Amino acid sequence: MANIDSVTLEVTDLSSARSFYDALDLGDRLQLRESDAPTSGFRGFHLSLVCSQPGDVNALFDAAVAAGATVLKPVAKSMWGHGGAVQAPDGTIWKIATSAKKDTAPVSRKADEIVLLIGADDVSASKKFYVAHGLTVGKSFGSYVDFKMGSSPIGFGLYKRAALAKDGGVAPEGSGSHRIAVNSDLGTFTDPDGFAWEPVRVSR
């Protein structure tokens, strides 16, 4: 089964970005590198931190805001669970959420899983592309596709671009670099929406 080892965010200020992400304690699942590639507006993706309980969501959300993130959607309860969204100082959108309704353990600032959701202009075409590159579809309905990633440190899915922007609390317009690369064992390629996949990176 395909494995995504980590994602690499391209940032303009490496020192500041490291300081911010150290507060979230994401370990080697997140890599950083400097880039001044032009980018504006919605970058076409967001990353989700999936927690095991609401208290952990609150702790991570508060840590992100204290470290300099901008609140896009305050933490709130919903039919599906508990969560909110922030934008990191480097521009990356992070959704922090859980499907659990209540705490069942001591609260910790821990994310059990990171999930990358890419906003696709044509979800069906992008799904076919990824299946041809070795990924296996787990769930697929309408504008959403979730791929089976096994024990991969990073989950992966597709969502209609406009719907993904709305879910993150931003306008769908955007241009330029996505400022992200996916580090996996699938080789080097670029998907139909311009997202780059690269070999696994060894260090941060």
The whole-number mean of residue pLDDT values reads 94
Q: What are the secondary-structure elements, in order, as H or E?
A: EHEEEHEEEEHEEEHEEEE
- Order the strands across the largest sheet as they lie in space: 5-6-7-4-8-11-10-9
Rg computed from alpha carbons, rounded to a whole number of angstroms: 16 Å
**What portion of the residues fall into strands of 2 or more residues?**
35-45%
Task: Report the structural category.
Answer: alpha/beta
Poorly predicted parts = none
DSSP helix fraction: 10-25%
Q: Mind describing the biggest β-sheet? A: 8 strands, mixed
Our measurement of the CA-to-CA distance between the termini, rounded to an integer number of angstroms, reads 25 Å
Q: What is the global morphology?
A: globular
Number of helices: 4
Number of strands: 15
Protein name: VOC family protein
Pfam families: Glyoxalase (PF00903)
Q: What does this protein structure show overall?
A:
There is one protein chain. It is globular, with a radius of gyration of 16 Å. The model has no long low-confidence stretch (mean pLDDT 94). The chain is of the alpha/beta class. Helix content is 20%, strand content 40%. Strands 5-6-7-4-8-11-10-9 form an eight-stranded mixed sheet. The chain has a five-stranded mixed sheet with strand order 2-1-13-15-14. Strands 3-12 form a two-stranded antiparallel ribbon. It has helices at residues 14-22, 54-66, 123-132, 161-168, and strands at residues 4-11, 30-34, 39-41, 45-50, 70-77, 82-87, 93-98, 113-120, 136-141, 144-148, 154-160, 174-176, 180-184, 189-190, 196-199. Strand 9 and strand 10 (144-148) form a beta hairpin. It is built from four helices and 15 strands. It starts with a strand and ends in a 5-residue tail after the last strand.
